[in-house]
């Protein structure tokens, strides 16, 4: 049942196994709308797995995750949860912006094309409106002058800022950042953190 559009995340009893390794062990967490939460831990402690589960890029083995009361990746019928079809899961992902460690920009598209692809594909905006929104976001990240550039011609910091702008293009309720500065040179960290 859909209750609001604020970005409240509720994680309840979530566990995830990879073979015999338990990557997530009965995680329960409430994240208020508008809050900033940092998940710290050593490499291999499940931070990325948890973020991927919030967006249902990773299926959990136990428990469930809700955003604004909506079950992520599932629908509830009585006391049971049933996994949604991929098309429905993709529709849910529009509400969750995800910035990956390695940026994941589309190399065959220019910066502008990277930003307008999803809003047009999800029929959120016309091409004209998507381009206007893309330029607004490029202003936010300070890279309007790179609209026609290819991602391979950008520095790591610029690629990460474009990845953030792309995630914001769909106006998500929730933003997830997976080690957003780990692949950057130390002098670029500040500029990316300022954008975040």
Describe the structure.
- The longest helix is centred in the C-terminal third of the chain and has 14 residues, at 127-140.
- α3 (111-121) runs parallel beside α5 and α4 packs across α5.
- β5 and β6 form a beta hairpin.
- The chain has helices at 47-54, 86-93, 111-121, 127-140, 156-168, 186-195; strands at residues 9-18, 21-31, 62-67, 70-71, 74-77, 80-83, 96-99, 174-177.
- It has 6 helices and 8 strands.
- The radius of gyration is 17 Å and the shape is globular.
- It has 196 residues and is α+β, with helices and mostly antiparallel strands.
Task: Give the helices and strands, then pairings.
Layout: E1 9-18, E2 21-31, H1 47-54, E3 62-67, E4 70-71, E5 74-77, E6 80-83, H2 86-93, E7 96-99, H3 111-121, H4 127-140, H5 156-168, E8 174-177, H6 186-195
Helix pairs in contact: 3-4, 3-5, 4-5, 5-6
Brief write-up:
The chain is an alpha+beta fold. The protein is built from six helices and eight strands; from the N terminus they run ββαββββαβαααβα. Helix 3 (111-121) packs across helix 4, helix 4 crosses helix 5 (156-168) and helix 5 (156-168) runs parallel beside helix 6 (186-195).
Features:
196 residues; alpha+beta; 4-stranded antiparallel sheet; two-stranded antiparallel ribbon; 6 helices; 8 strands; 33% helix
């Amino acid at each position: 049942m859909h209750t609001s559009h604020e970005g409240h995340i509720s994680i309840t009893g979530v566990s995830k196994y990879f073979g015999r390794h338990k990557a997530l062990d009965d995680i329960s967490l409430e994240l208020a709308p508008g809050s900033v939460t940092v998940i710290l831990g050593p490499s291999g402690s499940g931070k990325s797995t948890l973020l991927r589960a919030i967006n249902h890029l990773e299926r959990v083995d136990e428990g469930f995750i809700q955003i604004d009361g909506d079950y992520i990746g599932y629908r509830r019928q009585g006391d049971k949860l049933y996994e949604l079809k991929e098309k429905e899961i993709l529709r849910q992902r529009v509400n969750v912006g995800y910035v990956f460690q390695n940026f994941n920009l589309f190399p065959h598209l220019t910066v502008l094309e990277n930003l307008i692809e999803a809003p047009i594909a999800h029929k959120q905006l016309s091409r004209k409106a998507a381009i206007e929104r893309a330029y607004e976001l490029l202003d936010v990240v300070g890279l309007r002058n790179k609209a026609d550039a290819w991602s391979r011609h950008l520095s790591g910091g610029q690629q990460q800022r474009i990845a953030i702008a792309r995630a914001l293009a769909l106006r998500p309720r929730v933003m997830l950042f997976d080690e957003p500065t780990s692949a950057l040179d130390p002098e670029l960290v500040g500029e990316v953190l300022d954008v975040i």
